Amino acid sequence: MDTTETPTPPITAATPAQFTAAELDEAFAQFQRTVAEIAVSRDWDRYAELFTDDADYIEHALGTMRGREEIRAWIWRTMTSFPGSHMTGFPSLWHVVDAPTGRVICEVDNPMRDPGDSTHITATNITILTYAGEGRWSCEEDVYNPMEFGRAAMRWCEKARELGTIDESAAAWMETTGAMFASRR
């Protein structure tokens, strides 16, 4: 009889059908709690740690990040520059679980910080998460309209400029990328 222990393999994609709807629902609830904490702390390494070593992150406008380290580099770039740096949270407005595929599908709100007069500016996306087990996800796919996000960011810039609260990063975005989202009055 062999008594040697087999090393535990790294957490990678699991067979989707191995999770119940209740397990997926609880895993998503924990994901949302962690993301809410990250939105406050801005510790994007914690976000990358929610994914398996071999995870894919499919971002339709910016491409596919392959593996946790590529996700880590991308999330830091994205969330520390405008408009990501001005988003205050990423709460799910609704979600459904699909146990046969191991997926959670949700609508995510992306509110921006108050420009100075309590104006609420946001855009939403649909996210499809594939669960791998042990609190990690093997895939995230964000489906959204880049024009809607660009227009929301530009509305924020215009309002902040009007109020005198626009910062340097938002002003730079407004004058470059944001020009394509300017109001056509």
Structure at a glance:
The chain has five helices and six strands; from the N terminus they run H-H-E-E-H-E-E-E-E-H-H. It has 185 residues and is α+β, with helices and mostly antiparallel strands.
What does the model show?
With 185 residues, the chain is α+β, with helices and mostly antiparallel strands. The chain has five helices and six strands, in the order H-H-E-E-H-E-E-E-E-H-H. The chain has helices spanning 21-41, 44-48, 68-79, 146-163, 168-175, and strands at 51-59, 63-66, 92-98, 103-109, 124-133, 136-143. It has a six-stranded mixed sheet. It is elongated. It starts with 20 loop residues before the first helix and ends in a 10-residue tail after the last helix.
Put simply, the count of helices is 5
Mean pLDDT level: 92
User: Whole-Å distance between the termini?
Assistant: 80 Å
Output the strand order for the largest sheet: 2-1-6-5-4-3
Largest sheet: 6 strands, mixed
